[in-house]
Design a protein that fits this description.
Number of strands of chain A: 11
Strand content of chain A: over 45%
Largest sheet of chain B: 6 strands, mixed
Radius of gyration of chain A: 13 Å
Shape of chain B: globular
Largest sheet of chain A: 7 strands, mixed
Distance between the termini of chain B: 28 Å
Oligomer: heterodimer
Distance between the termini of chain A: 39 Å
Order of helices and strands of chain A: EEEEEEEEEEE
Helix content of chain A: under 10%
Radius of gyration of chain B: 13 Å
Shape of chain A: globular
Strand content of chain B: 35-45%
Number of helices of chain B: 0
Number of strands of chain B: 9
Helix content of chain B: under 10%
Chain lengths: 124, 110
């Protein structure tokens, strides 16, 4: 079955760190760019970060640049999001999402498979 | 404030047609292909339209998309109660060098 399964969310204090994981199955992981998209409670979707299939090219939104790092381990079919210096405004459900090309995560830019999401709560 | 602008809500009766607009600029809707997603609250988004007007397998032809430059449109015909959800548009922004989404449009089928 083709699926994405996020894990690693939880409650963390402001200024703390967390690492999210997304386990992919049912498709050849390395041949697809991947992204993280988040959704704050009661709010819309917000793109966070993207990485190409080989893992050598990444992009991140200005709101997380310098604090979050996207990476992948193609030998483990797993996508990661290392989140440092967390803020209250980072509280959201974080979705892992699959794109449709390998080498360029910016074109085409759309997501044909989403995980169920993992909730990150930043609060003291 | 989202980079892409969508109406907060639309409504129509079962069987009717509804349109949802997604207004952007030359650096996103005007330069990139628009995609549309459907999200029932509490669940993950699902791809409805990609490449402005293409449907993934399994999406009925009641759903269609178009892009006329800096504005994209999602059209849903033959509305069903199961279509009630929030709909989002998305595109890559070549100026921001990042992905952008609309704020979402809640569809109510009366």
């Amino acid at each position: 079955e083709v699926q994405l399964l996020e894990s690693g969310g939880g409650l963390v204090q402001p200024g703390g760190s967390l690492r999210l994981s997304c386990a992919a199955s049912g498709f050849t992981f390395i041949t697809y760019a991947m992204s993280w998209v988040r959704q704050a409670p009661g709010r819309g979707l917000e793109w966070v970060s993207s990485i190409n299939g080989p893992g050598g090219s990444t992009y991140s939104s200005d709101s997380v640049k310098g604090r979050f790092t996207i990476s992948r381990d193609n030998s483990k079919n797993t996508l990661y999001l290392q989140m440092n210096f967390l803020r209250a405004e980072d509280t959201a459900v974080y979705y892992c999402a699959k794109q449709t090309e390998a080498y360029d995560s910016t074109w085409p830019w759309y997501f044909d498979l989403w995980g169920r999401g993992t909730l990150v709560t930043v609060s003291s | 404030q989202s980079v892409l602008t969508q109406p907060p809500s639309v409504s129509a009766a079962p069987g009717q047609r509804v349109t949802i607009s997604c207004s952007g600029g030359s650096s996103n809707v005007g330069s990139s292909h628009v995609s549309w997603y459907h999200q029932v609250p509490g669940t993950a988004p699902r791809l409805l339209i990609y490449g402005n007007d293409k449907r993934p397998s399994g999406i009925p032809d009641r759903f269609s998309g178009s892009n006329s430059g800096t504005s994209a449109t999602l059209v849903i015909t033959g509305l069903q109660t199961g279509d009630e959800a929030v709909y989002y548009c998305g595109a890559w922004d070549v100026s921001l060098i990042g992905g952008v989404f609309g704020g979402g449009t809640r569809l109510t089928v009366l």
